[in-house]
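Help needed: design a sequence for this.
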């Protein structure tokens, strides 16, 4: 509030709101809640206030730890690796407007193709700059702040542009919950003047996320299992093959248990290499480039049930031939 001006309702609300009830601190608590306790960041003039607020919410109090990176591409790839390494985890990175975000976009696109929940947070223009027809630095020299957003629309499953506090709480929660549900990256842009402003919507501890589990049709599931068992029981030397989407389905443990129970020879597709820490899982199913043991088993097998498969051209070869007998468990 300016000296000598009439107090507004917003000034009264801010005065009555605890100092820690800011957008930046709320975001820190939300990220920590979903497992992103380390946030990879590169400072820039559009995200400095946000970084201060994130750092103020200490890990010991339910906040996050900032990890400085040399450049934005490194930060986004670190978030990618963080999401991979922590089962069911989320990675997060903070970059600056346009020049930083566009530097990070290659890693975000990779996370999209690998089904990794990465939250890419970009410091955005001042909330007063929207609609002002100003030309800002860090842009392509046009009074258009949507270039960054348009780029991320192609490689994220949800985009949130936070340029006012009234719906910031809802937008942040929707973005993070969508990343969890879809197991894909999301993009959040936060105006640089908002992270340190207290607001009543951030005054209470956030309600824990509740994500409805995906339920199968029980009758259809039982019918599918019966058909698969009947098929495999009459098959000649089946080979069980694990695919890359085991991670998305959180089914790596179940795959190992199934392999141990059925006793079939086991292989994994190249993109699933290393998913299962088991000596039997070291065989790679990759056309003519199979490991020796996998190639021998495939040569004698007339059925190769593929679980959670992904068939890019690189895995199938120039003819794009798929196995004759497929069982998809998605």
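Sure. Designed sequence:
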């Amino acid at each position: 509030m300016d000296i000598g001006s009439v107090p507004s309702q917003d000034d009264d609300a801010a005065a009555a709101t605890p100092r820690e009830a800011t957008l930046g601190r709320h975001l820190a608590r939300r990220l920590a809640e979903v497992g992103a306790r380390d946030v990879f960041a590169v400072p820039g003039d559009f995200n400095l206030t946000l970084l201060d607020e994130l750092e103020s919410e200490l890990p010991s109090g339910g906040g996050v730890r900032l990890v400085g990176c040399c450049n934005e591409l490194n930060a986004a790839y670190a978030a990618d690796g963080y999401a991979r390494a922590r089962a069911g985890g989320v990675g997060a990175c903070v970059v600056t407007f346009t020049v930083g975000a566009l530097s990070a976009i290659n890693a975000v696109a990779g996370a999209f193709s690998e089904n990794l929940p990465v939250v890419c947070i970009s410091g955005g223009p001042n909330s007063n700059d929207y609609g002002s027809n100003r030309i800002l630095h860090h842009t392509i020299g046009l009074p258009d702040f949507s270039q960054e957003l348009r780029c991320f629309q192609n490689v994220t499953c949800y985009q949130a542009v936070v340029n006012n506090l009234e719906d910031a709480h809802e937008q942040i929660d929707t973005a993070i919950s969508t990343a969890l549900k879809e197991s894909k990256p999301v993009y959040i842009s936060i105006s640089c003047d908002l992270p340190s402003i207290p607001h009543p919507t951030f005054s209470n501890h956030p309600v824990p996320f509740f994500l409805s589990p995906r339920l199968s049709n029980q009758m259809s599931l039982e019918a599918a299992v019966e058909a698969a068992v009947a098929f495999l029981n009459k098959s000649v030397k089946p080979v069980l093959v694990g695919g890359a989407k085991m991670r998305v389905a959180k089914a790596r443990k179940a795959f190992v248990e199934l392999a141990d129970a059925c006793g079939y020879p086991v292989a994994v597709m190249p993109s699933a290499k290393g998913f299962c820490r088991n000596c039997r899982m070291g065989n790679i199913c990759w056309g003519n480039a199979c490991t020796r043991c996998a190639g021998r088993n495939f040569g004698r097998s007339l059925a190769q049930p593929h679980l959670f498969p992904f068939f890019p051209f690189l895995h199938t070869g120039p003819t794009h031939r798929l196995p004759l007998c497929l069982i998809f468990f998605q």
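Residues 1-16 have pLDDT under 50 and may be disordered.
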